[in-house]
Amino acid sequence: MQRIRLRYAKRGPLRFTSHRDFARAFERALRRAAVPIAFSQGFTPHPKISYASAAPTGVGSEAEYLEIGLNAVVDPEQLRVALDAALSPGLDVLEAVVAGEGSLAERIDASRWRLELFQIEPEAARAAVAAFLEAPEVLVERMTKQGLRSFDARAAVVGCMVEAEPDLPSGAGGVPCAIIDLVVRQVIPSVRPDDVLSGLRVVAGLEPPVPPRVTRLAQGTLTEQGEIVDPLEADREGVGIGGH
Predict the structure, then answer these.
(1) Do 124 and 101 belong together in one domain?
(2) What CATH number should be reported for the domain holding residue 11?
(3) Is 138 domain-assigned?
(4) Are 88 and 125 part of one and the same domain?
(5) How far is CA 45 from CA 9, 16, 34, 48, 66, in A?
(6) H/E element holding 7?
(7) Residue span of the structural domain in which 127 resides
């Protein structure tokens, strides 16, 4: 009867929530919030929930998306508030819109990431990024379900640059921190931020002494100018939020 698209965030310690754990938590939140979720047909009905390109475990995000099917019409903003209250702090529902035409997945072909490299001087990071971008190919390895796999981490990278004057995280205490702005196309096999970090190690020996903090800032359709269009933009223009 109605399809709703949601944008949600994974923040703080909740960035370590796996996609499977989030899916379970979200289904519990649907029950707590008494959402009239629709179910599939057949012997084992499942709630109609479609996820779009979930971020890896351990990665924060301000731009995760999903779509739910309902068997009754609801106000999107009231639904957002109810689901946000039913989820743990750090799993935050940021926006809800009535779904328009087309598939949500078709509107997502790239992501923008923020990589915080602690105890790395920005100049060292700039040199490594320059070497990475100049390379025609950067082969890295990743363990997959099919075993160790080698693939090119360079071709999917649309943009990669070190911020000129990064805002250091609170409590940094003068410790250097290089912050990389990264835009990556969603391809097969997928190229993740940790693959690009592996590539920086391959081409320039750059290896942060402590684990980097990675956050997805945006995902959507990549324009020719290198900008990313929010996948909910067309829905906002067509229907609006909260019925407005």
Answers:
(1) no
(2) 3.30.70.580
(3) yes
(4) no
(5) 28, 29, 18, 9, 19
(6) strand 2-10
(7) 120-209
Helical H segments across 33-121, by residue range: 76-86
Does residue 167 lie in a domain region? yes
Q: Evaluate whether residue 147 is within a structural domain.
A: yes
Give 71's strand partners.
none
Write out pLDDT tens, residues 74-130. 999 999 999 999 999 999 999 999 999 999 999 999 999 999 999 999 999 999 999
User: Do residue 148 and residue 101 come from a single domain?
Assistant: no
Q: Name residues of the chain where pLDDT drops below 70.
A: 165-174, 238-244
pTM of the model: 0.89
Distances, alpha carbon 22 to alpha carbons 80, 104, 208, in Å: 16, 19, 29
CA-wise closest residue to 132 among 197, 208, 227: 197
**Joined tokens for residue 90:** 């750090």
